[in-house]
Amino acid sequence: MNKLLIILFTALGLYGAEGYSVYQKHCMQCHVEIMEKKEVMRVLHTLKAPPMVEVSNRLKENIVISDDDDDVKRRVIIAFIKDYIENPSVQYSMCHPMAIEKFGIMPSLKGKLSEEERQAVAEWVHDRYSGVAFK
After folding, report:
1. Core-most of 11, 26, 103, 125, by most CB within 10 Å?
2. What percent of the chain has pLDDT over 90?
3. Which CA distances in Å does 12 have to 8, 77, 89?
């Protein structure tokens, strides 16, 4: 049993690291990883997109499902992120209207990430900010 847990946690850790690598390669040019609201307001004029912590928190706030199972909600959020990476639109944006006005809609990354990369970064975006508030 202990060996199985070690293997599982090792695999999850590697997948998380891969998601972070995808973020570094494709996302961090526009989305800073984490920043407090106070700092965002101070440097808002220099930002290209909302901080990733805010993106994750907005998704978790706005995606409402009838099932109270956290794993089900996690899968729904990950599926949304994977689709949005390739098909961003104002209709499906979870940003505040002011953020859309400031930053616009993110450009599509269709064809730039593999299915595995989209899965990894979507999981990373969800899991990295679990319990991290944008304050």
Report:
1. 125
2. 68
3. 6, 18, 31
pLDDT in the model for residue 132: 61
d(CA 124, CA 105): 21
Q: How far is it, in rounded angstroms, from Cα 84 to Cα 86?
A: 5
Which pLDDT belongs to residue 7? 44
Question: What does the pLDDT read at residue 27?
Answer: 96
Instruction: Label each residue of the chain as H, E or C.
Output: CHHHHHHHHHHHHHHHHHHHHHHHHHHCCCCCCCCCHHHHHHHHHHCCCCCHHHHHHHHHHHCCCCCCCHHHHHHHHHHHHHHHHHCCCCCCCCCCHHHHHHHCCCCCCCCCCCHHHHHHHHHHHHHHCCCCCCC
Distance CA 135, CA 63 (A): 20
Q: Which domains does the chain have, with CATH numbers?
A: 2-128 (1.10.760)
Cα separation, 73 vs 58, in Å, equals 14
pLDDT at 121 over 90: yes
Please give the model's pTM, rounded to 2 decimal places. Answer: 0.81
The mean pLDDT of 87-99, rounded to a whole number, is 92
